[in-house]
Amino acid sequence: MSGLIGRKIGMTSIFDENGKNIPCTVIEAGPCVVTQVRTIEVDGYNALQLGFDDKKTVTKAAEGHAKKAGTVAKRKVVEFKGFEEKYKLGDTITVEHFIEGEFVDIAGTSKGKGFQGVVKRHGFAGVGQATHGQHNRLRAPGSIGAASYPARVFKGMRMAGQMGNERVKVENLKVLKVVPEKNLLVVKGAVPGHKNAYVMIEK
User: Fold this and answer.
1) Cα dist. 171→35, 136, 144 in Å?
2) Residue 54 contacts residue 72 (beta carbons within 8 Å)
3) What's the CA gap between 60 and 66, in Å, rounded?
4) The pTM is what?
5) Which residue segments constitute the domains of the chain, with CATH numbers given?
6) Alpha-carbon distance 71 to 89, whole Å?
7) How far is CA 103 from CA 172, 176, 195, in A?
8) Residues of 145-174 as b/e, b for ≥16 C-beta within 10 angstroms?
9) Tell me: the pLDDT tens digits for 45-86?
10) What would you give as a GO molecular function for this chain, any one (predicted)?
11) Which residues partner with 22 through β-bridges?
C-alpha cells in the first residue's frame, strides 16, 4: 500500500450537506521525504522509505543516511510499497497524494492504559450480583478452567493485564477533506493514538 506518515492533531466534528454532525480526526500528513528507494535488483522488493519530522539530536549514521537524500535526519522513518508514481531519492510527497472521498487505512500505537482488570480490558460483566452476602467478587473474572482435567489454564484465556500501547490498524476511513496549504487530512471517525502520535496512512 502506498501512503504517508502523519501526526494526529486531535478530533473535531463537521457538518455534511444534510446537516448531519460527523466526528472526525485531523491529521498532519507529510510532507514526507524519500530517504531510500528499495529495488528488486538490490533489495529483492520495491518500496519507498519515507522520513517525517526533523530530528534534533542525530547520530552520525542517521545523518549520513539522510545526507544521501539531501535532507536532515528524520524522527519517523517508514517503508511503503505500491507507489504507482516513480519517485527518486530526495523527492517530497505531500498530502495531495490523497483525494477527498477516497478510503484509507490508518495504523498507530493505541493509548496505554496500564494494568487493567477483565471488566475494563475485555468487557466482562462481572460475577454474580452485589447482594446476597457476596463480598469483593463483583468485578472478578470467575472460573478460568476446570480442575482435575485439563488441570491447566488454556492459552489465550482472557485475564487481567497490560491494556493498550499496541499497534492498531483502523480500516476504511473516509477522507472528508484535504487542506494542502496546511498539510492537513481530515478523516471520518477516530484513529489510534494520543495527540501528536505518529500514524501511518495507507491508501
Assistant:
1) 27, 40, 33
2) yes
3) 10
4) 0.84
5) 3-114+168-202 (2.40.30.10), 115-163 (no CATH)
6) 10
7) 5, 9, 22
8) eeeeeeeeeeeeeeebeebeeeeeebeebe
9) 999 999 998 888 889 998 998 898 888 989 999 999 988 888
10) rRNA binding
11) 14
